Amino acid sequence: MNPKPAPQNPAPGQPHADIQSGIRTLTAEAEGISALAQALDHQFSAAIDAIHDMKKDRRGRLIVAGIGKSGHVAKKITATLASTGTPSHFVHPGEASHGDLGMITESDIVLLLSNGGESAELSDLIHYTRRFGITLIAMTSNPESTLAKHSDIQLVLPKMPEACPNGLAPTTSTTMMLALGDALAVALLERTGLTAEQFRVFHPGGKLGQRLRTVRDIMQPLEKLPLVRATDTMDQVLLVMTEKNLGAVIIVDQEKSVLGIITDGDLRRHMNPDLLTKTAGTLMTANPKTIEASLLAAEAVDLMLNGFKSAITCLVVVEQGRFCGLIRMQDCLQAGVA
């Protein structure tokens, strides 16, 4: 059997039809988002005001709902909002009609997604918000729809062609919905002033969670550190250094205030026949570099790599000026921070 010929790459300047199709789709969706950015108005601010006031009350949640493709987008918006500090839950409109309406309270706000705004499955949810005075925010491209007319706030998507050549599959419209959900989440995050440390509370796992760990989270605590006196000879220092196996010793006074540090690198630089007879005080680097325990471990990595004339491998950790630990580049690497 003859082997199949290897596929030929398209000639420069003549993209394959599949690539042309991809470019058309991405261009159409990018144009949709651009038009959406131009269309934002006071209704967007009104939505942020309403949700922010609900958050301050500390009782309500943002209920996000949608059917079909809009429902899938609604779930993603829900997750983004929840992870950025806005209590949020997804409710399926169909399930809402069969008992899940009981999940929605008068303190909540409902964000309902529907491109056309006329899906029959939305009627019970719309009626419920009107009956109990629950704020309803519509996200739709049809300002004359039933959903838009019965909502308190209308987030209207610009009418842009779908990327689908038949104009049927939700593509540009759902991309705009997704982007508008992100815009809501980020605006709420900025309005609230969510810090990186608060953000970490919602992301304790994964790479993001690791990068948002603080120095205190991964430092070697005081009780595990090799501590010696300035008058100790280097043969004593080496015993302590070997026992603790942290690649450094800290020289302290009687009150355990830091006087200096000796690292593995210092030992190599001072290696000579009379090394063991010298005292820690004569070899130590006085006033070693420090970092606050409350700072992000990523900041410690940056400081060790870029903060000085040459890279260093560890920092003394202080809390309100008091010595409390040691953070090493190795600790950061093991924690997935570096």
Can you describe what's shown?
With 338 residues, the protein is α/β, with parallel strands linked by helices. The chain folds into two domains: 18-194, Glucose-6-phosphate isomerase like protein, domain 1 (Rossmann fold); 215-334, CBS-domain (Roll). It is 43% helix and 17% strand. It has 15 helices and 13 strands. A five-stranded parallel beta sheet has the order 2-1-3-4-5, with helices on both faces. Helix 1 (17-39) crosses helix 7 and helix 2 (42-57) crosses helix 7. The longest helix has 23 residues, at 17-39. It is elongated.
Q: What can be said about this structure in brief?
A:
The protein is an alpha/beta fold. Helix content is 43%, strand content 17%.
> How far is the N terminus from the C terminus?
52 Å
Q: Quick check: average pLDDT?
A: 88
For CATH, the homologous superfamily of the largest domain is named as: Glucose-6-phosphate isomerase like protein, domain 1
Profile the largest sheet.
Answer: 5 strands, parallel
Class inferred from helices and paired strands: alpha/beta
Strand order of the largest sheet: 2-1-3-4-5
- The CATH architecture name of the largest domain reads 3-Layer(aba) Sandwich
Order of helices and strands: HHEHEHEHEHEHHHHEEHEEHHEEHEEH
DSSP strand content = 15-25%
- By DSSP (H or I, 4+ residues per run), the number of helices equals 15
Looking at the structure, what is the overall shape? elongated
CATH class of the largest domain: Alpha Beta
What count of structural domains? 2
